[in-house]
Amino acid sequence: MTDGARQMAQAALEGAMAEGITAVGGLHATEAVPEDLLAADGYIFATPENLASMAGVMKDFFDRCYYPLLDEIQGRPYAIMICAGSDGTGAARQIARIATGWRLKPIAEPLIVITGAQTPEAIAAPKIIRAEDLSLCEELGAAFAAGLAAGIF
Questions:
Q1: Which pTM was predicted?
Q2: 82 phi and psi, to 5 degrees?
Q3: Does residue 114 lie in a domain region?
Q4: Distance from the CA of 138 to the CA of which of 9, 14, 30, 130 falls in 20 to 30 A?
């Protein structure tokens, strides 16, 4: 809603494409369906943290996709990116628990970008993710893509 997680996801997508990976999704949680996950070799889940939780649209995505994909995507790699005002660990834990249920394989610690937004005005304001944080997201995307291409994951 304030664009931080989208910026992070875009940077990861650019990192993956820089590795020469052309079949990269980049789907918004409202658009993704189980068939999209079945067609993918791995996943980077990006979400803002809202009230110590993943965003509602991300929860809706997992609600729609979880049971249709049980025993269908196990062993595939995943990574997590969170845009948070002050913490981010609540959302990361929720996604990791869902990924555990799917028996996905984490390839990195959750990448949590802290914006420092603490007032109602700052929380609601559009976010500008710092270049050094976007660089970390890009590196994650590149490493993820390289690992898939090399068959490491």
A1: 0.94
A2: -125, 135
A3: yes
A4: 30
* End-to-end CA gap in the chain: 32
What is the sign of the dihedral through the CA atoms of 51, 56, 60 and 65?
negative
The helix (H) or strand (E) run that includes residue 98 is helix 89-102
Q: What is the rounded CA–CA span in Å between residue 113 and residue 26?
A: 19
Determine the 3-state secondary structure of 148 from DSSP.
helix
Q: Is 94 helix (H, G, I), strand (E, B) or coil?
A: helix
Residue 55 lies inside a defined structural domain of this protein: yes
Structural domain includes residue 100:
yes
Q: What is the pLDDT of residue 25?
A: 77
d(CA 59, CA 96): 13
CATH assignment of the domain containing 72: 3.40.50.360
| Domains identified in the chain, total number | 1
List the structure tokens of 39. Answer: 């067609």
Within a domain: 37: yes
**CA–CA dist 128, 115 (Å, integer):** 8
Q: Which residues of 51-77 are buried (b: 16+ CB within 10 A; e: fewer)?
A: eeebbeebbebbeebeeebeeebeebb
Residue 48 · residue 83 · CB < 8 Å: yes
